[in-house]
Amino acid sequence: MEKERGETTEYVYSLLKERIFEWSLAPGQKINIRTLSQELNISPIPLREALSRLNSERLVILEPNKGYHVSDILDDGNIKKMLDARILMETYAVQTIIRNNDLEIIENLSRLNEQMISINYGSTNKNALFFTNLDEQFHSSIMKACGNDFLYEAYKGMHCHLHIARLYHIKNKVDQEEAPSEHQEIIESIQTRDIYRAERAIFKHIKDSLYRLLN
After folding, report:
1. How many Cβ atoms are within 10 Å of 167's Cβ, its own excluded?
2. Residue 159: left if φ>0, alpha if ψ -120 to 50, beta else—which one?
3. Is the dihedral of CA 204, 176, 145, 155 positive or negative?
4. Nearest-5° angle of CA 195, CA 186, CA 158?
5. Cα separations in angstroms, 41 against 22, 31, 46, 147
6. Which of 23, 134, 143, 164 has the fewest Cβ atoms within 10 Å of its own Cβ atom?
7. Alpha helices by DSSP H, the chain
8. Using CA atoms, how far apart are residues 143 and 185, in angstroms rounded to an integer?
9. Which of 146, 143, 148 is nearest to 161 (CA)?
10. What is the distance between the alpha carbons of residues 193 and 102, in angstroms, rounded to a whole number?
11. How far lies 192's CA from each of 49, 50, 87, in Å?
12. DSSP assignment, residue 31?
């Protein structure tokens, strides 16, 4: 039964996450647990567990005595601040990777980038989420490889790719052409152990991503 409940919770979590990204659960919308559990034909227990997980990722917000509601979309100013923080963190990470000659990361980064290129995006929301997930894995791999657990946890705690995915849905597109090309520049700069090139590649990629999100 524990296994079944875990599988149900994972299913509900994925379903709610998809609904949040496609705005069938809109920003700011209050979530009625009783109504939603009846709609999904499940008990409230896995639903509460899924909502708790989404709360930790800041996709839903739990307010005392009020319950859950869907979090608002980050405004332009906070998106800029979040991506500025990413530049600082990821620049430090690639510097450390190169200085430590930690080149085994190259194979994993290349594999993830090839998967991003191969997605047949079209207008399918699930494929957009898959693309964003691969993008998150690419950057998280860089952060984890730098070996600073405190920095890695801080990076994960921003859940930046989840917020970006919601903006992708507003624009009804992902940057499938631009992002993998910019990723390749990051990969090659690590492979050639060129710290200046790596710093420049991270800065350009994140700044260009910001421009694509907000324009």
Report:
1. 15
2. left
3. positive
4. 100
5. 21, 16, 11, 44
6. 23
7. 2-21, 33-40, 44-56, 76-99, 105-118, 125-145, 149-158, 160-171, 178-191, 195-214
8. 17
9. 143
10. 10
11. 45, 43, 20
12. E
Fill in the DSSP letter of residue 132: H
d(CA 81, CA 76): 9
Q: Is 86 exposed, middle or buried (0-12, 13-18, 19+ CB in 10 A)?
A: buried
What is the per-residue pLDDT across 2-46, written as a single tens digit (0 to 9) for each?
Answer: 444 556 888 899 889 888 887 888 889 999 999 999 988 888 889
**By C-alpha distance, which of 67, 73, 77 is closest to 27?**
73
Q: Which residues contact 215 (CB under 8 A, 6 or more apart)?
A: none
Specify the DSSP class assigned to residue 146: T
Residue carrying the six token digits 């963190």: 89
Output the furthest CA–CA distance in the chain (Å, rounded): 56
